[in-house]
Specification:
Blueprint lengths: L2 H11 L4 H12 L5 H12 L19 H4 L4 H11 L2 H34 L10 E6 L8 E5 L2 E6 L6 H20 L7 H8 L13 H16 L5 H13 L5 H13 L4 H10 L3 H7 L28 H14 L3 H14 L4 H13 L3 H16 L26 H17 L3 H13 L5 H19 L2
Parallel strand pairs: 1-3
Antiparallel strand pairs: 2-3
Length: 467
C-alpha cells in the first residue's frame, strides 16, 4: 500500500462520531460487488461537486451523470463529515504531496499536448464547450477513470503509477480526435463486411462490434498514438499487427494513410476526410478473412492461488446462453437465433435469452420485432420486484418450482443501448437520449455499455450529418 494511502487510512480509522458512522453506513448501502465499479461512482460524483464545505453541484440536476445520481443524498453527509472531522486540516498536511504530483502531471500534459497538436498541425482554441482536465488523485489506485460528458473530457488518475503516461496520451488523443471521427465516417459500402470480420476477435470490446463509428474512432486514436511514438518499422509492424489481433481491424489502413499525411502540409483536420473515404472496407475484410485473431485473455488468477475455489457445475440454461452469446459474437445470427429460441422454448421469459434473440432479429432486419423484445426485457429487468425475472446464472430449478433469476445489469444496460440506437437511426434523438441515459443509470452498468451510451449521447448530432 502506498505511504499516502496508508497514512490516510490510519487517520480515518481513528475517526468516530455521528458524521463518520452516517458516511460509513451510506457507503455500505451503496456498495457494489465490483470494488472498481463502486469507486467509479464516487469518482463521477466528485467530478460534479464544487468546493467544500457545501459541495454544491456544478451542473444542473438534469445534467447529472446517472451513475453519480445513484449516490443521491451523499452531499449533506459529506458536508457534515468535512466540518466535524476537520478534513481541511488533514488535507493541508497532505497537500504538498498532491501539489508535487500535480506539477509532474502538468509537465507531462504540456509535453503530450505539444506533441499531439504538433502532429495534427493544430492550433488549440480554448472552448468552454470542449474541455480536457486531468485530476490528480493518488488514492484512485491502479485503475484510471476516464469520463466523457458531452464535450467535457476528464481523466482521474494516479500520475505516479506505471502506465499513467499512456493513459494521459490516449485520453488526450480522444479529446483531440473524436470530433474528426464523429464528423467523417468510413464509406457505407463494406461496413457490414468489416464488422463481421471484427466480431470474430475474442478480445474486441463489445461496444465496437456493432458500431462502425466507434470502431473507426478507436483505430484512429491508436494509429496516431503509434505514429507519434516514432517507432522503428519493425516495432510499428508488430504494434499494428497486435492491434489487429485484438480486433481493431481498421488500424492498418488508417496507419498507412497517416504516413501519406505526414508528407504533406495539410492539417489532419483537413486531410482526414479523404483518408477515411479512401479506405476500401470490402478489401480490408477480404484481407482479414483468414486472419488469426488473438485468443481471449484468461481470467486473472485468484489472489490466493493455493486456495482452490469450489467447483460449480454449469447449468443447462447457462450453457445454452453462453453458446448463443458466443455464436452471436461471431456474427452467426442463424445459429444464435436458433439457440436463443431453444432456450426460450424450455425456459420462457429469460431476459438474457430475449435480449440475444432481439439482437439477432435486429441484425437480420426485423427491427420492429426486435424493438418490442428489447422493451419487454427492459420492462422485466426494471421491475423492482423482478428478482425472479433476471438472468439465470445458477443451477437449474427443480421440476415444478419457480425459476429464480439474478439481477442482470449487463443485459438491462445493453438493451437500453440498442433501443437508443434504433431510435437514433429513426431520427428520434430525444427518445434515443432517454434510452442512453437509462443505460448509464443502470446500477453496475458494465464499462462497454457505459462507453456506448456516452458515445451515443455525445455523438448524436454528428451522426445526423454523415451516414
Amino acid at each position: 500500500m502506498p505511504p499516502l494511502e496508508a497514512a490516510i487510512r490510519r487517520e480515518i480509522a481513528k475517526q468516530h462520531g455521528p458524521a463518520v458512522e452516517a458516511l460509513r453506513q451510506f457507503y455500505r448501502n451503496h456498495e457494489l460487488a465490483d470494488p472498481g465499479e463502486t469507486l467509479s461512482r464516487y469518482v463521477s460524483y466528485g467530478l460534479i461537486l464544487g468546493s467544500p464545505p457545501r459541495f454544491r453541484f456544478i451542473v444542473d440536476r438534469e445534467a447529472m451523470p446517472p451513475d453519480a445520481a445513484a449516490l443521491d443524498g451523499l452531499t449533506p453527509l459529506l458536508s457534515a463529515y468535512y466540518t466535524q472531522e476537520q478534513v481541511a486540516q488533514l488535507y493541508a498536511r497532505v497537500l504538498p504531496i498532491y501539489e508535487r504530483h500535480a506539477d509532474e502531471a502538468g509537465h507531462l500534459l504540456r509535453e503530450l499536448t505539444q506533441l499531439e497538436t504538433g502532429y495534427m498541425r493544430l492550433i488549440p482554441e480554448p472552448s468552454p464547450e470542449h474541455t480536457y482536465t486531468v485530476y490528480v488523485e493518488p488514492l484512485v489506485g491502479v485503475r484510471s477513470n476516464f469520463r466523457i460528458y458531452g464535450g467535457r473530457y476528464a481523466l482521474v488518475i494516479d500520475p505516479t503509477r506505471e502506465g499513467a503516461r499512456d493513459d494521459i496520451r490516449h485520453s488526450l488523443l480522444h479529446f483531440l480526435l473524436d470530433p474528426l471521427a464523429l464528423s467523417h465516417h468510413p464509406p457505407i459500402a463494406g461496413r457490414k463486411a468489416i464488422l463481421d470480420v471484427a466480431s470474430r476477435a475474442p478480445r474486441l470490446p463489445t461496444e465496437f462490434r456493432q458500431d462502425i463509428v466507434a470502431l473507426t474512432d478507436e483505430c484512429l486514436v491508436k494509429a496516431v498514438e503509434l505514429r507519434i511514438q516514432h517507432l522503428t518499422d519493425a516495432q510499428a509492424e508488430q504494434a499494428v499487427t497486435a492491434a489487429e489481433a485484438d480486433g481493431f481491424v481498421l488500424i492498418r489502413p488508417i496507419y498507412n494513410g497517416l504516413r501519406t499525411y505526414e508528407k504533406g502540409e495539410d492539417s489532419l483536420k483537413a486531410y482526414y476526410p479523404q483518408l477515411i473515404q479512401k479506405i476500401d472496407l470490402n478489401a480490408e475484410a477480404r484481407r482479414l478473412a483468414s486472419f488469426q485473431f488473438a485468443a481471449a485473455e484468461a481470467a486473472p488468477a485468484p489472489e490466493q492461488a493455493h486456495v482452490e475455489a469450489p467447483r460449480q457445475e454449469v447449468s443447462e440454461l447457462e450453457r445454452w446462453l453462453l453458446e448463443g452469446e458466443s455464436q452471436l459474437a461471431q456474427k452467426d445470427t442463424r445459429l444464435a437465433r436458433a439457440t436463443f429460441e431453444r432456450v426460450l422454448e424450455k425456459y420462457p421469459d429469460v431476459p438474457r435469452a430475449q435480449y440475444g434473440l432481439a439482437v439477432c432479429i435486429i441484425v437480420d432486419g426485423e427491427v420492429e420485432r426486435g424493438r418490442a423484445l428489447l422493451e419487454q426485457v427492459v420492462a422485466e429487468l426494471s421491475n423492482p420486484g423482478a428478482a425472479s425475472q433476471g438472468t439465470a446464472l445458477g443451477a437449474e430449478p427443480a421440476a415444478g418450482s419457480d425459476t429464480v433469476f439474478h439481477a442482470d445489469p449487463r443485459t438491462l444496460a445493453w438493451a437500453h443501448v440498442w433501443l437508443g440506437r434504433i431510435y437514433e437511426q429513426r431520427g428520434l434523438r430525444e427518445q434515443a437520449g432517454v434510452e442512453y441515459r437509462a443505460a448509464l443509470a443502470v446500477e453496475g452498468v458494465p464499462e462497454g455499455a457505459r462507453m456506448a451510451a456516452q458515445r451515443g449521447l455525445g455523438a448524436g448530432g454528428s451522426r445526423q450529418k454523415s451516414p
